[in-house]
Specification:
alpha+beta; 28% strand; 271 residues; globular; 14 strands; Fructose-1,6-Bisphosphatase, Chain A, domain 1; seven-stranded mixed β-sheet; D-Maltodextrin-Binding Protein, domain 2; three-stranded antiparallel β-sheet
């Protein structure tokens, strides 16, 4: 685990970047904003583009040669080639939650190496919750306000997935994208209770031990999931393809960076 629950320098810097983006998002959230529609009919706001600019500029300042695949840039036609190591950025995951003002939106930054998310930060600025994880080092959570600046000595609590129980399982499902296939899966897999959540917070609920499974059959993009996946994996969980049971990987450029259906679990080997 992280020494004294303190993340590495690299992960800490990524957390600071996510925090800066979250601060800008909250300024727009509080001031009011217009909603536009992208080519795929999904919504986008000024907060999406402003946060992405902050994140990309900050990563480039830290790592000038970094390969960054960011949602809004890709939507605008700027699609870099996949390399052995690259960043995946979703500046505002859960735009629908942002628009509906329920607070369940996040800033997602992930580092992918050889198709595997090896580090990730998920920041929910409206909830003042920050999650981070790094392969081989563990996962942490901190309460950090978006308006007070980065604290001099933030307190990090370690996260560790609980065992997957044989009965009494709790699942988390999408608040905005729940479908009939998800309902059937929940009915067939010994689920005692279901909680709803938006954005990549679903992965973080598993890492915190507040749920055990997260099935997703609707479409997701790699930048939606990589950061939460990294946090969950660092806490001891896993994300596998629903059909094959193989680990979910990243850099699927031939698919347009979308994911197959998957199951996230507190267990290292799925369900």
């Amino acid at each position: 685990m992280m020494t004294g629950s303190q993340p590495s320098i690299r992960l800490t810097r990524l957390m600071q970047v996510a925090h800066a983006a979250g601060t800008r998002i909250m300024a727009i959230y509080d001031a009011g904003f217009a909603v536009e529609e992208k080519a795929d009919t999904s919504p986008v706001t000024e907060a999406d583009t402003a946060a992405e600019a902050i994140i990309v500029d900050a990563i480039r300042a830290l790592e000038p040669d970094a390969n960054i695949i960011a949602e809004e840039a890709v939507a605008g036609g700027a699609v870099p080639h996949v390399t052995d190591e690259f960043y995946l950025v979703d500046p505002l995951d859960g735009t629908r939650e942002f628009i509906s003002r329920n607070g369940e939106f996040t800033v997602n930054i992930a580092l992918v190496r050889n198709g595997e998310p090896v580090a990730g930060v998920v920041y929910a600025p409206a909830l003042s919750r920050l999650y981070a994880g790094e392969q081989g080092a563990g996962a942490v959570m901190a309460v950090i306000e978006p308006t007070a600046g980065w604290p001099a000595s933030p307190r990090f609590d370690e996260l560790a997935c609980p065992p997957l129980p044989g009965s009494g399982r709790r699942a988390v499902a999408s608040r905005s994208h729940r479908d009939e296939q998800t309902e059937r899966w929940l009915a067939q897999n010994n689920i005692a209770d279901t909680v709803a959540a938006g954005s990549s917070l679903k992965f973080c609920l598993l890492a915190e031990g507040k749920a055990h499974l997260y099935p997703r059959f609707g479409r997701t993009m790699e930048w939606d999931t990589a950061a939460g996946h990294a946090v969950l994996a660092a806490a001891g969980g896993s994300v596998v393809e629903a059909d094959s049971g193989m680990p979910l990987h990243y850099g699927k450029q031939s698919r347009g960076f979308d994911n197959p259906a998957f199951i996230a679990s507190v267990a290292k080997q799925g369900i």
